[in-house]
Every structure is written in C-alpha cells, then in structure tokens.
Amino acid sequence: QFANLLNKVQERYRKPRIQMLVTPEVVQVRVGRPQYLRVAIKPEFASVTTNYRLEVRDVPGGINRSWLTLPAPRTLAPGESHSFDIVVNAPMVEAGTYDLFLGVVADDTSVPDVAQVVRVNVERSIRYTISLKPDPVLHRRFFRRPAELTIQNDGTYAETFSIDVSPSDRLLARPSVQEVLVPRDQARKVRIRLTPLRGAREIERLKYTVKVRAKEAGEEQEKVSQYVFPPPSGIGWFERLRRLIFLALVLAAVAFVVLRLSQGQTPAAIVQEVINAITALWNSVRAALGGATS
Question: What is the spatial distance between Cα 34 and Cα 281, in angstroms, rounded to a whole number?
Fold first, then answer.
C-alpha cells in the first residue's frame, strides 16, 4: 500500500510541465532604444515532440504586443531546451514601471501553460527637434525680420532648454530669451534678432550657429544658418530718382482723388478738373518757352 502511494506521488510529480527563466527580471528601457530580454524554457516529463511559443497577455495598465518583437515558435523533442530572445521597444509613454505578462504555450494540450510577470522600467527620456525660419535670413534695409527658432518637445516630460547663439564676425545675434520651458508634446518659439555690423556687406554671407541644450537630459542639438546680403541691383542713382518721382506723383494723384471724393465730387468732375489742370500746366510751360498759347 505504501508503494502504491509512493507511485501515485511520483506520477503526479512527473506530469509534463515547463520550467521558465526570464533574464533580467527587471528590464530598464528608454523610449527609442531597444532592449533585449531572454526567456529560457526547459520542458520536463514531456513525452512527445511539440511546438512551444511565447505569448503576451494584455491586461489593463500592462504592456501590450506592440512593445515587443517576439521570436518564432520552436519545436522541441523530449529532453531538449531552448532560449527565446525578445526585443522590447517602449513607445512614447510616461516614465514608470509597467508589467509584462509573458507566457509559454505548447501545442500539446497535455503540457500546461506557464506564465511569469516581468517588470519593465521605462526611464525618463527626451526627444526633441529644432528648426529655424527663415533659413537663410535675407538682409533688409528697413523692417528687418528676425529669425524664429522652434523647439518641439516629443519627450515624456516637460523640459527646460537653454539657447546659445554663436554668430560669425560682423554679425550680432540676440535671442529673446536664454531659457524656455517646453511642455510635453508642445512647441515653443524664440525670436533671434540679427544685426549686421559695419563692413558686413563685404562678406555677403554671415554664418551663425544656434545650440539648444536639454538641461535635465544633457542632450544638445545645433542648427547652422546664414544671414545673406542680396546682390547689388545695378540700378543707378538717376533711375532711382526717376522711380521716386514717379511714386510721389502716383501717391499725390491718389490723395487728390480721395480728397475730392470725400468732398462729394463725382468721378466725371474729378477727371475734368485733372484735364483742366494738365492743360493749364502745359500752356504755362509753352508760354515759358516762348510758344503760342491755344
């Protein structure tokens, strides 16, 4: 009777099962940086050759299948073992600890499933981009347009960015602020005032470098742009004077028409008044030159 009891205990102990070992038990990952996880399995007391595969069980607040790159199933004969390598690639999520419910399933239904909870610790990470507009900046004699720096924070937390502008000789560059706080998934714009110094036109293209540093993460990016003087127009002083006189006449005519309209005159009366004024002016010129008046 004791021998029968011992045999029953041994039979129960010798039922098929899977030994599962996951390393490391706690996975440290950063967004955008894949990490590897190894799952070693060893079927025990299995009597048939069958396939073994890894499965991820979705639970609220846990890691889903999109985080992982799972290997293909593996066929194992009795007494064989195998190690699966999993790639963990965290998406853009809040920093913190997430649970991965990982299981091993055999095609042979006589082998029970086995599962283990793996902790995945997502570290704080920063991902950001910078851009300049316009690029390059064209020189204007009047109404100069500043350069505009845009910082887009695609990281997992709000970050403070420091801004440093290094201009070349004969160019003065001043950002509107030295530091700016950019919330997560948002952008901030900083104006950079560019002032050419004396003799800058001789160089024509003045380079300046903008460096943006994430203070907490310690990461730095830079952008190089230029302040450009347009080529000479080739217009002489006489042509410029002629254009200015023509512009002044056009503005005077517009002002005259607006004034007469505001006084209640009709367009026909305004045209007749203009014709009379031109005729009187022409007769005066002819008289001054010694010609006969009409």
Answer: 86
pLDDT digits (tens, 9 = 90+) for 110-162: 899 999 999 999 888 788 999 999 999 998 877 778 999 999 998 888 999 99
Backbone angles phi, psi at 126, to 5 degrees: -120, 140
Displacement of CA 128 from its chain's centroid (Å)? 6
> Treating both helix axes as pointing N-terminal to C-terminal, what angle do 267-288 and 237-262 enclose, rounded to 10 degrees?
130
- pTM for the whole structure: 0.54
* Identity of the amino acid at 1: Q
Q: Which residues pair with 39 in a beta bridge?
A: 22, 84
Read off the DSSP letter of residue 30.
B
Distance CA 4, CA 10 (A): 10
Residue 154: name the closest of 67, 93, 230, 227 by CA. 93
Token pair 């073992």 is found at 81
User: Which amino acid appears at position 157 of this protein?
Assistant: Y
Q: What is the pLDDT of residues 50-96, one digit of tens each?
A: 999 999 988 777 888 889 999 999 999 998 999 999 999 988 788 88
Question: 190 near 175, Cβ under 8 Å?
Answer: yes
Partners of 6 in the beta sheet?
Answer: none
Residue 88 CB neighbours (<10 A):
20
What's the CA gap between 101 and 62, in Å, rounded?
8
User: In the prediction, which pLDDT does 8 show?
Assistant: 58
Q: How far is CA 104 from CA 17, 66, 72, 96, 261, in A?
A: 11, 18, 12, 26, 90
